[in-house]
Amino acid sequence: MKTVLFYEPFAGISGDMHIGAMIDLGVPESYLIESLKSLKLPGWSISFGREKRCGIAGTRAVVNIGHGHEDHDEHGHHHHHRNIRDIAHLIEKSSLNVNVKDLTMKIFNIVAVAEAKVHEMPVDEVHFHEVGAVDSIVDITAAAIAIDYLKPDRIISTAPELGGGFVKCAHGTIPVPAPVTVEILKGLPVRFGAVQYETTTPTGAAILSALVAEFVEKPVLKIEKIGCGVGTRDAEIPNLLRVYLGKTPDVSAELSDGISSKEALMIECNIDDMNPELFGHVTEKLLEAGAKDVFMTPVFMKKNRPGILLSVMSSIENKERILGIIFHETTTAGLREYPVTQKMLERRFETIKTHYGTIKIKSFFYKGKKVSSKAEYEDVRRLALEHNVPMKEIYEAIERR
Questions:
Q1: Where are the alpha helices (DSSP H) in 52-163?
Q2: Whole domain around residue 287: which residue ranges?
Q3: Can you list the alpha helix ranges (DSSP code H) found in 154-251?
Q4: How far is CA 144 from the centre of its chain?
Q5: Hey, which residues does 148 pair with through a beta bridge?
Q6: Which residue, 299, 315, 343, sits at the end of a domain?
Q7: Cα gap 288→292, rounded to integer Å
Q8: CATH number of the domain bearing residue 302
């Protein structure tokens, strides 16, 4: 059986909520603090306490920054802001192990690439404000230390709640979710509007983006430990990050090969009397509603009429939403459904930099080894249009990298 770390960010995720959840899950406070001290980063401390939100108790972690402290390097130069090279130097010269260093920089690089995209500047020229501050360096490094301590075989999560409204930051008043948060989570499932404030910060988004192998709705998990990280607000929903540590049951040997299995439904109907122009619209609606796959097959129906077999794969819990779209948007008067098993390779996301811009790459793994990878089509298309070049030139730039 594999050890699984499962995030449930129903009220979002921030750096301090993540620290609290990890401590609540069993990472020793003393181990975390002593490991962070190897950064030799002055002017910070972390306080821990027990608090409740909506009656649910958890660990509240607060990163305290010394008031009036000015950050200097070993040469006495002021560092009001840091770029990615400054942070890499700070992490590299620490005595943290190589796994912690690599994961810390992976999270920071995700934020740096998103900042560069949002502000339209090279990654090396991004000067961190909130994310580069001492508290966020502590948050991100602490996340890497905790994961290295727990050593899960697999990390999964439900879609994070992003919130809504507006928030003030160094750049002024911006909408929630913040542009950098949206850029980090682009291509991943998210939820909006449970509350009118920021629930997921760029730091929290980057932690999920770097760690999570798969976003799921209903995981199969034998729970062993539960941790709750308490947020700053006492709102209408529990301001908590809930995290579980458990084992995947021995459903099949395939799970150890990097293949996940999920029960799903195949919903089908035959259509021979609908304007073909509408099929594109129906497909988009179904995908937007959460269909896992939509495809159409030419068929010959009764009396040898040519028609279209519309096939939609749906999660069991999303069935009613899919049925509603099919009955409202198509001319079918009936359909059929049957259970199927969806098997998927483990997938991981990374963002690479080319001279045309940044591109998200999706890689697939079988038995722990990469079997294929591909660039996100929309990223390639966007860069081709921005630079007025053929898409194949963007793909060639990826291959040359």
A1: 84-92, 98-119, 134-150
A2: 259-343
A3: 179-185, 202-211
A4: 16
A5: none
A6: 343
A7: 10
A8: 3.30.70.1380
